[in-house]
Design goal:
- By secondary structure, this protein is an alpha+beta fold.
- The protein has one domain: Fe-S cluster assembly (FSCA) (GMP Synthetase, Chain A, domain 3).
- 46% of the residues lie in helices and 24% in strands.
- The chain is built from two helices and three strands; from the N terminus they run αββαβ.
- The protein has a three-stranded mixed sheet with strand order 1-2-3.
- Helix 1 packs antiparallel against helix 2.
- The protein is globular.
Length: 83
């Protein structure tokens, strides 16, 4: 399978957005989200802090992170959590 190429500028913008989301999540919920990788279709993040083991972490991942990121990067097919 061919590896997708990502634009370095897009990747930097996405990292910055995930950092901003993480700051919000940390301030208001005690958790965090860390950018791991982006292959042109799938964004991978690592949840931490209070998100670890929280039954609402799927809502944080898909509602907050994926929902917000897709507003700015509609080409993203999905956001996945990396443990």
């Amino acid at each position: 399978m061919a590896e997708l190429k990502t634009d370095p500028k897009t990747e930097l913008q996405m990292k910055a957005l995930v950092e901003q989301l993480s700051a919000y999540i940390e301030t208001f919920h005690g958790g965090s989200a860390e950018y791991v990788s982006y292959d042109g279709k799938v964004l991978k993040v690592r949840l931490g802090g209070a998100c670890l083991g929280c039954p609402l972490s799927p809502a944080t991942l898909h509602g907050w992170v994926e929902g917000t990121v897709r507003q700015f990067f509609p080409e993203i097919e999905r956001v996945e959590e990396v443990k």
